[in-house]
Design a protein that fits this description.
Length: 422
């Protein structure tokens, strides 16, 4: 550390203790140091500014095209490493694993990749596996350098990419599964000093937290996108409003409804209903939710219809409050969601799902889809280009396979089935 900056204390992050990480940790040996020169105090170059930048890259690492590459690259520079890696999933049998790498000669990301000798077969000879949880261990504690140099994994995987000294730490992800981080130097460099090992141990707490949080955020975002696509497929518009009833976001179905300008529009970032009656009722429901949440009471869910100038069947609105924690509530916080259903809109039904769920033929599934969209049997015959008697025969077969006895029951069954949301 530069004297002008003083001594920097790196916070020690201690996740919940749990020793259930699988098999017992390896038994460590007393290292025989193979040092070619006096260790250089690498950490003297780490300032508060550079450490802050390092952590920034780490906590944003899950957003990168090559995850954690900037963090690993900056760490390599700070500690003069030849190689650094985060292995989220170890290669096992046909699974090539998931590795993020910083190296001058290797690609940055390996996803189920068997082109690399290590991920293809030499992972079974890993000389630093199953380390004691959250403890920094050096390679020479696992085996002597003379033993290492006799191994195939050293000759094939390590020596060609300039790896000789190695420090490692095993951590746990959001699902409680082990993942590993490795820091490496070339043969002509010095081994890891006690100060560097202490630094890497403290950094390990940040790595565990960053990777765990990153995984959870990605999983939540994937789930949110899936739910949004599913709801949009049901033609249900969703609009999120904040503490002042301003619009935060809309899904695709909501944007289509607003673009139609048929009774619902946006004015000054707020939802505007054309009719005075609808506007007054909606405003009252919104104020009721905001008032209840500010007073930490339980707001109610309300529903209403909205008249449409086009004369089409009225929109149906559901105004549902969201849970708000006033202790951590910034401006523009989501307070409620408005769900908009257009009864005139036809639901999209997946033909393939109908064939899988009810063992219908493709022709039967096509007829069922058209019936579910609101067409009569005669209209379906004309639309599909088949005789009415053929359509009636197919309908009888559909009844037998689905267990319903009326056309209305069939329509209800399909619209409630997974075929309508797949």
């Amino acid at each position: 550390m530069a004297e002008a900056m003083g001594k920097l204390e790196y916070p020690d992050i201690h996740p919940k203790e749990d020793d259930s990480l699988g098999s017992s940790p390896i038994e460590l040996r007393h290292p025989t140091h193979n040092t070619v020169s006096e260790p250089v105090p690498m950490l003297d170059s780490v300032t508060i500014t550079s450490y802050s930048a390092l952590l920034s890259h780490l906590y944003d690492g899950h957003l990168e095209e090559d995850p954690y590459s900037q963090f690993l690259d900056q760490l390599r520079t700070a500690l003069e490493l030849s190689f650094a890696s985060i292995t989220l999933r170890e290669p096992v049998d046909a699974d090539g694993g998931l590795l993020f790498v910083s190296s001058d000669v290797l690609q940055k990301t390996y996803v189920d990749d068997h082109s690399n000798p290590y991920t293809d077969r030499y992972y079974t000879s890993n000389v630093m596996s199953n380390l004691p949880w959250r403890e920094v261990v050096t390679l020479d504690e696992c085996m002597s350098y003379s033993q290492l140099e006799e191994t195939d994994i050293y000759r094939v995987c390590m020596e060609p990419v300039n790896i000789y000294h190695m420090a490692g730490i095993d951590l746990r992800n959001a699902n409680g599964q082990r993942f590993s981080v490795r820091f490496c130097r070339p043969r002509d460099a010095h081994n890891f000093t006690p100060e560097e090992r202490a630094f890497l141990k403290d950094l390990g707490g940040h790595i565990q937290r960053a990777v765990s949080n990153g995984m959870q955020l990605i999983q939540l975002d994937n789930e949110r996108r899936l739910y949004a696509r599913t709801i949009s497929g049901r033609s249900i518009g969703i609009i999120t409003l904040d503490e002042r009833a301003r619009i935060i976001n809309c899904n695709q179905a909501a944007n289509e409804i607003i673009a139609a300008k048929d009774g619902i529009s946006i004015v000054n970032d707020q939802l505007m209903l054309n009719s005075d009656r609808s506007r007054s009722k909606f405003g009252g429901y919104v104020e009721e939710i905001i008032r209840a949440q500010r007073q930490q009471e339980t707001p109610t869910v309300n529903a209403m219809t909205v008249e449409r100038p086009s004369g089409e069947k009225e929109y149906e609105l559901l105004i549902k409050p969201l849970s708000v924690d006033r202790n951590v509530e910034p401006a523009h916080t989501p307070y409620m969601m408005v769900f908009i259903s257009d009864p005139a809109k036809r639901y999209e039904v997946d033909i393939r799902m109908l064939t899988l769920l009810y063992e219908l033929t493709r022709a039967e599934a096509m007829l069922a889809k058209h019936l579910a969209s609101g067409l009569t049997l005669d209209q379906c015959s004309a639309e599909l280009g088949i005789a009415r008697n053929t359509a009636r025969a197919q309908l009888r077969s559909i009844f037998a396979k689905t267990g319903v006895t009326q056309q209305s029951m069939l329509v209800s069954l399909i619209l409630k089935s997974l075929a309508a949301i797949s």
